[in-house]
UniProtKB/TrEMBL annotation:
Region (Disordered), start-end ranges: 291-318
Comp. bias (Basic and acidic residues): 291-306
Protein name: Helix-turn-helix domain-containing protein
SMART domains in the cross-refs: HTH_XRE
Top-level division of the source organism's lineage: Bacteria
């Protein structure tokens, strides 16, 4: 079965499929795929087009046309062969097929001005005061959070709703980025997550706007975006250097929400009987004491979102 390839798919309006193939080809050395060194001088890193063609059992001219966006149809067997030849991981293979989808992208649709979080989810995250927890969407917009998450990561209430995005904060919020022990590694993973979402949802104007803003404002983002690395949900362990609690190494769990496919629950936990667990307990006790002294919870500042005695009750955000 043949598939149509739209060479101008993707948020940037460019030949995303060709760009991805070139980037993956450049990142793969011949020795990694069992090809001998023929002694020829390599003017560019990675596989040559003729080597990729040999591995995928297609012509070199076909690879040229594909990378230049001049091939309008790509079959599933060819996509499989290219994925095998480029030694693509599961996330990268899915991204390749998404870029070469037979169904043309739907017309850009207006995103709802607000994404609502179900009251049951709000109740859930506020019912776990000892576990930092947030509700995020696939762009990593922060839709709701509990007091523990605010203590650990940021006072989200002080951030304008349109800027409450973890990827944006990783690049543009100095205080947030300084939390991470491996700042570069975290930032690069953020780009890979965003690149995957851009391939899967090329009609999302909010995502396109986020990519555009970060490309304009951060040179590292531009460089890493051009590398076409993609990454899906994975088990994560992150180390933070917190200004109050010191160093914490936490496991990050990402749990899907069946009733809201574009949302997921993220939690941050420390392993029992570790210094990180003690540091997290200290941080939460400190946060509770500060909250009592101020007479309000630190994770919302809008009056309409407060329940009795100033307890937070997250409403929709944009």
């Amino acid at each position: 079965m043949e598939q149509h390839v739209n060479p101008s798919s993707g948020p940037a309006g460019s030949n995303e499929l060709g760009d991805f193939l070139r980037a993956r080809r450049a990142a793969l050395g011949p020795h990694q795929v069992g090809l001998p060194d023929d002694g020829r001088l390599r003017r560019v890193p990675g596989l040559r087009r003729d080597e990729l063609a040999q591995l995928a059992h297609v012509s070199t001219e076909y690879i040229v046309r594909l990378e230049q966006g001049r091939t309008r149809r790509v079959s599933r067997p060819v996509l499989d062969a290219l994925a095998d030849a480029l030694d693509l991981a599961t996330d990268e293979r899915a991204y390749l097929f998404a870029l070469a989808d037979a169904t043309p992208p739907a017309p850009a649709r207006r995103q709802p001005a607000q994404q609502r979080v179900d009251p049951q989810l709000q109740q859930l995250i506020h019912g776990m005061p000892d576990i930092p927890a947030m509700i995020l969407n696939r762009r990593l917009d922060v839709l709701a959070w509990n007091t523990a998450a605010a203590a650990l990561l940021a006072d989200f209430a002080a951030i304008p709703p349109g800027e409450r995005n973890l990827i944006r904060m990783t690049f543009l919020d100095t205080a947030y980025r300084s939390l991470f022990a491996d700042r570069t590694g975290v930032a690069r993973r953020c780009v890979a997550v965003l690149r995957r979402e851009a391939g899967l949802h090329p009609d999302d104007p909010a995502l396109t706007a986020l990519v555009g803003e970060l490309s304009m404002r951060d040179p590292d983002f531009r460089t890493w975006w051009a590398s076409h690395q993609v990454r899906g949900p994975h088990r994560l362990t992150k180390t933070y250097h917190h200004p109050v609690a010191g160093t914490l190494t936490l496991d990050v769990q990402q749990l899907s929400v069946d009733t809201q496919p574009d949302q997921f629950l993220a939690t941050y936990t420390a392993r029992p009987d570790t210094p990180s667990n003690e540091a997290l307990r200290f941080l939460l006790q400190w946060s509770a004491r500060i909250s009592d002294e101020k007479g309000r919870a630190p994770d919302r500042d809008d009056d309409h979102a407060r329940g009795p005695r100033g307890n937070p009750s997250h409403g929709p955000i944009g």
